[in-house]
Amino acid sequence: MRQRVFFEVDGVPVVGDLYLPALEAPHRAVVVAGPMTSVKEQVTGVYACALAQRGFAALALDHRHFGESGGVPRQYERWTHKVHDLRAAIDWLAARPDIDAARVGLVGVCLGAGYAAWASVGHPRVRALGAVAGYYRDPTELREKDPVGFRDKVEAGRAAR
């Protein structure tokens, strides 16, 4: 189940999608941090939905300056705001009666892994941190160095899709 949620950070509205598991509350929970310029309908929403299917309440949000959240200028990548947004999201989530405040964490995907790590530093409510870090290389270089391995990886990806 997905709920549209709202809270404020420094007086600026933040909009998120909270994915709830089909289990009895209180739920263990995570806030999902995503790649640079990502919005909740992209990577974080996909991860949050998958985590809810596995028993976690998971919050995907539009950081200030992005998506449906407030903040000007628009499309402004300010990592300190993202860290503060994640910390506020943890506090907001832990205050809900359907969330187990002793079992709240962060999941960071790609650049969001760094945001999540910074948000967890010294935060008393963060009990767990998971990171999914991307590995980016030049595809032309990979193909030239290992044409057979490159082809096999592409075929494996297509088969998985």
From the N-terminal CA to the C-terminal CA, the straight-line distance is: 25 Å
Enter the CATH topology name.
Rossmann fold
Number of strands: 6
Question: Could you say which structural class the secondary elements and strand pairing correspond to?
Answer: alpha/beta
Helix and strand pattern: EEEHEHEHEHH
CATH class: Alpha Beta
Low-confidence stretches: none
Global shape: globular
C-alpha Rg (nearest Å): 17 Å
Biggest sheet record: 6 strands, mixed
Number of helices: 5
- Can you give the helix content as a percent range? 25-40%
Question: How are strands sequenced across the largest beta sheet?
Answer: 1-2-4-3-5-6
Number of domains: 1
CATH level-four homologous superfamily name = Alpha/Beta hydrolase fold, catalytic domain
User: Based on the structure, what is the oligomeric state of the protein chains?
Assistant: single chain
CATH architecture: 3-Layer(aba) Sandwich
Instruction: Provide the β-strand percentage band.
Output: 25-35%
